[in-house]
């Protein structure tokens, strides 16, 4: 298939390209009028426009911080309101992941980065750039999400190894009053995961927080899909849901067993929530937020690049703040995005049930009452391989999907549940709604051909590579 940026469809098929790989928001659902109004409102008032065009505060625009905190409080309904001091404005989830690693890790002292697999594959290079290319570890999922027993066992082994090596102090990071160095990092997408489509159970979230506290780990969660949720029923009574189904891991850390700032704790907590406007307002805004304890949030704001240039995305942050101040973005998400993406999801699931399930294809967590996000994870019947299916689907039917191997954690794929050769991921967000069912029908045609071929496992199709400018399709 080549690099994702090179995906242009089949060279031989006369059928229209259907791209079920591209994980972008639908162009038809970008809130251009809303942003146009907000932009004019900001720029026509000098008292707002001048600060917006200057270096921003380290922690980000104060109005956006307050509005984000208010929206999160209403949506997640924690025991206590979320304060703006828990919020730091970022350049998006990926940029903030890099900042968290800069402030809170040391490439020697931090033993490992534990990544729930299958994983968001463009995170791998962020970890590698921070010096962890030899320390990435894969953690399998089960029906409830992260395999906590596997993680416990492997973290203990990692600690024994660190003890034997006398790895007791950070090697490259100075001691700072506003930061700390964690022994471990755990990375996951706990709600409507990209790519596995799963939602981690509340029990697992609590177990994960307790484990992180025991071994001094920072859990970094990409909570970027949480607002995009709807009933799983294919004949729902309502098309949108305005409250979260369960607390985030950062909420669990805030309150569980005395909370993140309990007596004897250092106050930084063990969880950081990555939020982003990319999926709900537009990735070109390059604006998001991080939530954690007040100490952790402040530490993020003190990343060197923020201290030098002020908060990233200062101008667009002010535009987004205006959309939240008027309540228009909140209404857009609940009244427009949730119903629209929910309809796309139902169209695709109906096609999967009709075309793929009878062929032996499986999808995870079919008993959930609430679903969401952008993606559906498909397990193919043996001996079909995702790489072969992806190549043939492109060549023969001009439909593009993502093969499972690209979501494997580099260098750690030997254990069961860490390799995904018989999986593919499909996206229902990018293509027009009418094309989704046809895309699944075409995929089913290829699967039938593969199942009917005597030499189904001997295809010469080559796996796609995850290298290249993959951002163009993720």
UniProtKB/TrEMBL annotation:
UniProt keywords, alphabetically: Transferase
Keyword flag Transferase: yes
Listed GO MF terms: 2-aminoadipate transaminase activity; pyridoxal phosphate binding
InterPro entries: Aminotransferase_I/II_large, PyrdxlP-dep_Trfase, PyrdxlP-dep_Trfase_major, PyrdxlP-dep_Trfase_small
Compositionally skewed regions (Polar residues) per UniProt: 453-463
Keyword hit for Transferase: yes
Residue ranges annotated for the Aminotransferase class I/classII large domain, each copy included: 55-443
Positions of the UniProt region annotated as Disordered: 453-474
Pfam family, one: Aminotran_1_2
Protein name: PLP-dependent transferase
Organism: Cucurbitaria berberidis CBS 394.84
């Amino acid at each position: 298939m080549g690099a994702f940026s090179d995906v242009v469809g089949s060279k031989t098929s006369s059928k229209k390209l259907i791209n079920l790989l591209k994980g972008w928001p639908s162009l038809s659902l970008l809130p251009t009028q809303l942003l146009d109004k907000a932009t004019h409102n900001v720029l026509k008032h000098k008292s707002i426009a001048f600060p917006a065009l200057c270096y921003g505060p380290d922690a980000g625009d104060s109005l956006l911080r307050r509005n984000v905190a208010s929206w999160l409080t209403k949506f997640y309904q924690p025991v206590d309101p979320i304060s703006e001091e828990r919020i730091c404005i970022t350049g998006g989830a990926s940029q903030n992941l890099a900042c968290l690693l800069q402030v809170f890790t040391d490439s020697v002292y931090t033993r490992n980065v534990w990544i729930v697999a299958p994983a968001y594959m463009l995170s791998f290079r962020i970890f590698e750039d921070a010096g962890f290319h030899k320390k990435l570890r894969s953690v399998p999922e089960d029906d409830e999400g992260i395999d906590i027993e596997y993680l416990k066992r492997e973290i203990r082994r990692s600690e024994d190894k660190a003890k034997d090596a006398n790895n007791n102090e950070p090697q490259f990071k100075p001691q700072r009053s506003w930061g700390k160095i964690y022994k471990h990092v755990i990375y996951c997408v706990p709600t409507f995961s990209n790519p596995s489509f799963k939602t981690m159970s509340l029990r697992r979230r609590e177990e994960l927080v307790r484990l992180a506290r025991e071994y001094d780990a920072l859990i970094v969660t990409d909570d970027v899909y949480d607002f995009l949720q709807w009933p799983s029923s294919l004949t729902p009574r309502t098309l949108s849901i305005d409250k979260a189904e369960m607390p985030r891991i950062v909420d669990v850390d805030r309150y569980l067993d005395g909370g993140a700032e309990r007596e004897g704790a250092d106050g930084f907590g063990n969880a950081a929530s990555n939020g982003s406007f990319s999926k709900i307002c537009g990735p070109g805004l390059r604006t998001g937020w991080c939530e954690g304890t007040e100490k952790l949030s402040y530490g993020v704001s003190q990343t060197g690049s923020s201290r030098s240039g002020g908060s990233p995305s200062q101008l667009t942050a002010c535009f987004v703040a205006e959309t939240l101040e008027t309540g228009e973005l909140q209404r857009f998400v609940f009244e427009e995005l949730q119903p629209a993406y929910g309809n796309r999801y139902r169209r695709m699931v109906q096609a999967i049930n009709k075309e793929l399930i009878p062929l032996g294809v499986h999808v995870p967590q079919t008993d959930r009452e609430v679903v969401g996000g952008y993606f559906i994870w498909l397990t193919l019947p043996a001996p079909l391989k995702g790489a072969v299916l992806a190549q043939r689907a492109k060549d023969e039917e001009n439909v593009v999907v993502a093969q499972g191997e690209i979501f494997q954690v580099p260098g750690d794929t030997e254990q069961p549940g860490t390799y995904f050769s018989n999986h593919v991921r499909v996206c229902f967000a990018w293509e027009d709604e009418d094309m989704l069912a046809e895309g699944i029908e075409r995929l089913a045609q290829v699967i039938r051909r593969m199942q009917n071929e005597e030499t189904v496992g001997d295809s010469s199709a080559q796996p796609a590579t995850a290298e290249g400018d993959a951002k163009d399709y993720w």
